[in-house]
Amino acid sequence: MQKKIVILNGSPRKNGNTANLIKAFTEGAQSAGHSVTEFFLDGMTIHGCKGCFGGNSNKVCPCVQKDDMARIYPAVKECDVIVLASPLYYWNMSGQLRTAVDRLFALEEGDENLLRGHGRSSVLLMAAEGTGFEEVLHYYNNLTHYLKWNNLGHVLAGGNMKVGDIAGKPALHEAESLGKSIR
Questions:
Q1: Which of 72, 102, 114, 120 could form an S-S bond across to 57 if both were Cys, CB 3.0 to 4.6 Å?
Q2: Residue 60 pLDDT > 90, yes or no?
Q3: How far apart are CA 90 and CA 133, in angstroms?
Q4: DSSP codes, 24-87
């Protein structure tokens, strides 16, 4: 059965190591018959959450702020799998990705919670210079637990300092295999 996959790409580099993980994952997912929509967050205007509790999940754009999240909300509402992709910055996801994740809260407000549960699954893809992924995994695992998303796994690619360092590394095969494994 075809799944709708949304990738939130939190890297500031369009062709960096995170992008290569995303490409491998996407190739695997598409070869398994799934549709993939990627949002390159650094090229979008997304403001931080105001914590106003003024959103309403049943609106076309559930947040009171009017920015590029209006493009992301419909895709997330309809998707089966959400992929969070980011370089590792100070033991966590990039600010671009964290801002978008915070803004997804608007889908929990109002008449119906459209973010929590609904049979959604998630994947984490990360590239980093080092290998200190423990803190981001803690955050990711807590997030998926709270949102009741089925955690399909992650690819954590350490040892990638410069753009292109990930080329030829096993993490690319792991990402492709993860994409293919989605059922």
A1: 114
A2: no
A3: 10
A4: HHHHHHHHTT-EEEEEEGGGS--PPP-------TTSSS-SSS-STHHHHHHHHHH-SEEEEEEE
Beta-carbon contacts of 125 under 8 Å, excluding residues fewer than 6 positions away, are: 18, 21, 22, 25, 83, 84, 85, 86, 154, 155, 175
HSE-up (13 A, CA, CB side) for residue 96? 20
- For the stretch 11-43, pLDDT in tens is 999 999 999 999 999 999 999 999 999 999 999
Q: How many CB atoms lie within 10 A of CB 115?
A: 23
Which helix or strand (DSSP H or E) is residue 130 part of? none
User: Is the full-model pTM beyond 0.85?
Assistant: yes
Domain 4-181, architecture per CATH: 3-Layer(aba) Sandwich (3.40)
d(CA 83, CA 121): 9
Question: What is the length of the chain?
Answer: 183
Type of residue found at 126: M
Instruction: State the DSSP H helix or E strand holding residue 155, giving kind and residue range, or none if neither.
Output: strand 150-157
| Contact assessment for residue 76 and residue 6, using Cβ atoms and an 8 Å cutoff | yes
Classify residue 65 as exposed, middle or buried by CB count within 10 Å of its CB (0-12, 13-18, 19+).
middle
Q: How many CB atoms lie within 10 A of CB 108?
A: 15
Question: Measured between alpha carbons, how far is 147 from 116 in angstroms, rounded to an integer?
Answer: 4
